[in-house]
């Protein structure tokens, strides 16, 4: 048996920290004199480190695992381990397992912290969107409420005139119309709003009756999308509405 073969089995135990006392000092003395064994020890320690961290990162090269396992497998050939060496062996394995467990726990802790942060961000965004939706509903409710008070500022001694304001988004077909100072309509009649396109026939845009103060609103009536509006107009029609104006236009607007 060569000198290297004599120390080959002890190197794997030394790499794991399982050698104690005289055996450890003998190996260390040999390592001082033998560069080949020092290189082999470095390989074994590198393989052991890769195996210890493999549970929390990429798999180590197969040759590293095989080389370390082969080195460890040689140990029983020397005969039965003395009780002290066997205890040190299992202590080293326990230390390695504990190190891997710490690394895994740290990784999962980081992942959980990142997940909690993302959930908190989503919760804040959801709360903000819910608040904006609530404010929008309150605004629409205020504009369309029959109990809302409307005030029009005019020059002194001039009677308030009927007014209407249409806000229209062509791409989505969304319309909000607000009116004030409207006269009451006859029984079984209603005001009807019309979208006058740049080309084609007028399009019905909602029926409404003013309240006691002459205020009224039409919020998002069903309209086709993409229609370019030239203006909006109001006529008085039957309560059920008309598909085309049947009376004289009493209010007419222009874009602006």
Q: Can you give a write-up of this model?
A:
This protein is an alpha+beta fold. It folds into two domains: 3-104, no CATH class; 163-252, Immunoglobulin-like (Sandwich). 46% of the residues lie in helices and 18% in strands. It contains five helices and seven strands, in the order αααααβββββββ. The strands form two sheets. It has a four-stranded antiparallel sheet with strand order 4-3-6-7, with no helix packed on it. A three-stranded antiparallel sheet has the order 1-2-5, covered by helices on one side. The longest helix has 62 residues, at 83-144. The chain is rod-shaped. Mean pLDDT is 77; it is low at 76-85.
Major beta sheet summary: 4 strands, antiparallel
Would you list the SSEs in sequence order as H and E?
HHHHHEEEEEEE
Bin the strand percentage: 15-25%
Count of distinct strands: 7
Number of helices: 5
The shape, in one word, is rod-shaped
Helix share, percent: 40-55%
End-to-end distance? 103 Å
Low-pLDDT segments: 76-85
Side by side, the strands of the main sheet go: 4-3-6-7
Number of domains: 2
| Rg calc | 44 Å
Secondary-structure class: alpha+beta
- The overall average pLDDT, rounded, is 77
Summarize the structure.
This protein is an alpha+beta fold and 256 residues long. It is built from 5 helices and 7 strands. Helix content is 46%, strand content 18%.
Helices and strands in order:
Elements: H1 3-15, H2 21-33, H3 35-53, H4 62-73, H5 83-144, E1 163-169, E2 174-180, E3 189-197, E4 203-208, E5 216-219, E6 229-238, E7 251-252
Antiparallel strand pairs: 1-2, 2-5, 3-4, 3-6, 6-7
């Amino acid at each position: 048996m060569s000198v290297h073969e004599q120390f080959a089995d002890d190197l794997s135990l030394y790499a794991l920290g399982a050698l104690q006392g005289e055996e450890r000092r003998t190996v260390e003395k040999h390592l001082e004199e033998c560069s080949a064994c020092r290189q082999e020890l470095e390989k074994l320690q590198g393989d052991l480190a890769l195996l210890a961290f493999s549970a929390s990162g990429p798999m180590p090269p197969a040759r590293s695992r095989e080389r370390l396992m082969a080195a460890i497998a040689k140990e029983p050939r020397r005969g039965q381990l003395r009780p002290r060496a066997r205890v040190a062996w299992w202590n080293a394995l326990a230390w390695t397992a504990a190190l891997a467990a710490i690394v895994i726990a740290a990784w999962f802790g980081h992942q959980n912290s990142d997940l909690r942060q993302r959930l908190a961000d989503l919760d804040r965004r959801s709360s903000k969107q819910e608040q904006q939706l609530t404010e929008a509903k309150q605004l629409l409710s205020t504009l369309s409420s029959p109990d809302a008070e409307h005030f029009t500022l005019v020059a002194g001694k001039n009677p308030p005139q009927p007014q209407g304001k249409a806000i229209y988004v062509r791409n989505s077909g969304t319309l909000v119309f607000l009116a004030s100072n409207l006269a009451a309509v006859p029984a079984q009649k209603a005001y009807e709003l019309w979208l006058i396109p740049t080309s084609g026939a007028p399009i019905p845009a909602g029926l409404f009756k003013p309240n006691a103060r002459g205020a009224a609103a039409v919020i998002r009536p069903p309209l086709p999308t993409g229609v370019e509006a030239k203006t909006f107009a109001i006529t008085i029609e039957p309560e059920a509405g008309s598909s085309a104006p049947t009376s004289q236009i009493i209010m007419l607007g222009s874009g602006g």
